[in-house]
Specification:
single chain, two-stranded antiparallel ribbon, 15% strand, SAM-dependent_MTases_sf
Length: 78
């Protein structure tokens, strides 16, 4: 889960961590053309719900240590 990934980084002594599911990325950040392209892979999706279920199991995650204050906390996923 997203929370599990976050905790894994924090427990690994990272200063901060972020995690976003592929579902969230798909809904918030992909434009319509990219969504249509993905939905047509493998002959088209019969069930959009199946794609959402699949995307809920994967995530983008990252963490950082900024011990010399480079400003890594300003990097956002947009």
């Amino acid at each position: 889960s997203v929370n599990t990934q976050y905790e894994r980084y924090i427990n690994g002594n990272f200063m901060s961590a972020y995690c976003i599911t592929l579902n969230e990325y798909y809904k918030k950040y992909l434009n319509l053309n990219e969504k249509q392209r993905i939905e047509m892979i493998d002959g088209g999706l019969d069930e959009k719900e199946l794609l959402e279920q699949l995307f809920e199991h994967y995530c983008f995650s990252w963490a950082y240590r900024d011990e010399i204050n480079l400003g890594l906390d300003k990097i956002k996923f947009e």
